[in-house]
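Sat 14:20. Reprocessing the chain from the morning session after the first attempt stalled halfway. Input below, unchanged.
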Amino acid sequence: MNSSLESIKFQLRKKAIVFETGGIRPTNDIGESWIGKVCWQNPNEQQPIGKNGKPMIPLATIFVEESDYVPKALKNIKMISIFMDQDINISYGVENYVEWFAIKTYESLEQLVPCNYTCDQIKPFPLVPRYVNDEFPLIDDIDDILLDTIEKVQENLGIEYDFDIFENNTVAHKLGGYPSSINGGLVYDKGDEFVLQIISDEKANIYIREDGIFYFGYNPISKEWSVICDYY
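Finished this time. Tokens:
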């Protein structure tokens, strides 16, 4: 393989944990990730309340510590729980949806106690993790500097990104890797790193606009989150 092509692939390739919805008998043990359910919390924590005064939707519990791969930005985090406002549909079209979410991070599992937050809107399932090491960005999400280099390599070698460089981008609930963008051009605030996506999931009865996806970015310095939504 041409050395310049190898260099491009090396720069782009990322690891990730992709999640399959259900297909196993739940254990309800600590370390088991879920879609549609938040099942662990600190003592005295309660279900967050949304803008409309109603309990927020428990969207996911993601255990980071138990994964074969952890995004660098999440290296000090052991578990993430995500709640979503029931009225989020009225907000579609904004740049950052974070105010419609309650995203809780836990740096230790030692004090966690079981809880059982579910809702009528989503059918809860345990998530089955699978490690992958061949995640690549869609070409519309590559930064301009690297894209210039890629275009020169394509021209010199007579190749195309989608067929000769790109390897995989899994459209699934996913920790790490690259966002599976629908319209391309996802832009995060400075310091934010894409760490997680939640997709529309027919099995779990999750419908994000028209087959949309939520992309979660995290800034490990400010410990703040951002949420982008893309849909057809």
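The mean pLDDT is 93.
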